[in-house]
Amino acid sequence: MKQTTGSGTLRKVIGASSLGTLIEWYDFYIFGMLAKTISTEFFPEGNSTAALLSTLAIFAAGFIVRPFGAIFFGRLGDLLGRKSTFLLTLVLMGGSTFLIGLVPGYHSIGMAAPLIVLLLRLLQGLALGGEYGGAATYVAEHAPPGKRGFYTSWIQTTATLGLFLALGVIMLVKMNISDEKFNAEWGGWRYPFWFSIILVIVSVYIRLKMQESPLFAQLKSEGKIAKNPLKESFRKKGNFKMVLLALFGATMGQGVVWYTGQFYAQSFLETKVALSFEQSRLILLWAIVLATPFFIFFGWLSDKIGRKWVMLAGMLLAIVTYRPIFNQLLEDADVQQWSAENSTTTVKQQTKLLAHSTDSLILTTTLYKLSNGAQYAKEQTDTLQSASGKILEGKPVIKNKVLPHTGKYVLLVFLLIFYVTMVYGPIAAFLVELFPVHIRYTSMSLPYHIGNGVFGGLVPFIGVLLQTTFTTDPLIGLWYPIGIAALCFVIGLVYLNNKVTDH
C-alpha cells in the first residue's frame, strides 16, 4: 500500500503535526519546570518539603496516565481517524494547561486548589498519551517509501524543542520581573500557562485545514478499519508479541536515555554540581540547540542502514560513558581543587541573623573570585548555642558558581543529548513499521508511553532515591538508567529485525 503525497503537501503535514506536538510537550513540561513555585501556591505553608513532594507527585501523575491515554486515544485514532483524534488531544492539553494558570491558590480556595490541579494534570497526561502516536502515524503514512525515518524524525525533535521552549519562556519572564512578582499568587509564574492558549489556537487553526492520512482514508473507503483495535492489538498473539518487543527491545532503553540526558542531568547540575537555576538551564539550552539537528540526521541515517543499529548504538554509548561523563561534571566543579590551583580573592562578605524555629543562626555569605576567572559564593551557618540548648552545626553550602570551563560543560551535556538523538530520532518510524495500518495507532502508542512515561519518567525519582539511600557514591543514581538500557540493548540485539519496511 503506497502513498503519493506531494512534497508541498508533505511539508505542510510535517509542519502542522510538529507544531502541535511541540506545543503539547511545552504544556506538559512547564509544570515540572515551575514545581517549586507551584508548591508554595497550591499547598499550605509550614512544610515546604512536603509541599514540593506533593507537587512532584502531581507532576508524576501525568506520566502514569500516559499509557491509558495511549489506549483510549489510540482506539479512537484507529476507529475515527488520525486527524480528528490528535486534534482532540491538542485541545484537551492546551485547555488543561491554560486552566492550571487560572486556578486560585490554596489561600483562596483551600484544598480544592491542589485537587483541581491534579485533575487538570491527569487530563494533560491522557492527552499526551494520545498525541504522539497520532502525529507520528499521520506523518509516517504520508511519507514516501524509503524516507519514513527522515520525515518522522521532525516529530522527534518536538519533545526536546518543547522542553527548550518551556525553559526559554520561563527564563524570559523571570529575567524581566522581580522574584517577588514572579512568585506571587497571581504572579509571573502563571504567564507561561496563559501563553499556551495562543499557541494552541494557532495550531488548531492550522490542523483544521489538514486532510486525513491517505492510508487510513483508503482503509476506511474499503471498509477495512479495525472493529475492535484493542482486541486485535493485545489479544492476537503475533501482534502482542510485537508490542512487547517494541517495549523491552527499544522504547524502554530509549526512555531512560531520554530522561537521563534532559532531566536527570539538569537535576544533577543543581543538586550535585551546585549550579544555580539560571546556570544549569543555560547550559542545557545551549546543548539542546547544538544537538537538535541530529534528530533529523539519525532519522535519515536509519532509512539507509536500518533503525536497529542506530538506536542500539545510542544505548551502548550511554551505558559505557554515563559514569565518566557525570564524574567529569563533578570533578570540573570541585571548588576545593579550584582554590588549590588558583589564588583566591574575597570580593564581598555579608552576614545576617536567621530565625530557625526557636533557634537563631548567623548566616555568612562570601563571594570569591579565583585567578582563573571563576567565581563562587559560599554560605556558612555558624555553630551557636540555641535557645533550646541544642548545638547547631554550621555547614558551608557552595552555590552560584561561574565555572572555569563552561564550554566543556555544554559539550558534556551535549553528548548526553546526542545519545538521545540516536535512540529517539528513528523510534517513530521503527514503531510505525512494526504494526499494520488498521491497528497501528493503538499498537504503537502503548509501548511508547510505557517505555517513556514509566521507565523513563522514573529516572529522576529513582536517581534521587538512590542518592539519598547510598550517600557515598554521588553517581549511584546512574545505575538505574544504565541497567535498563543494558537490558534493552541485549533484548534488542537478539530479537530486533533491522529490515526497513514500507507497509
From TrEMBL:
InterPro entries: MFS_dom, MFS_sugar_transport-like, MFS_trans_sf, Sugar_transporter_CS. It comes from the Bacteria. GO terms for cellular component: plasma membrane. Its main location: membrane. GO terms for molecular function: transmembrane transporter activity. It is a multi-pass membrane protein. Keywords: Cell membrane, Membrane, Transmembrane, Transmembrane helix, Transport. Pfam families: Sugar_tr. It is found in: Cell membrane. This is MFS transporter.
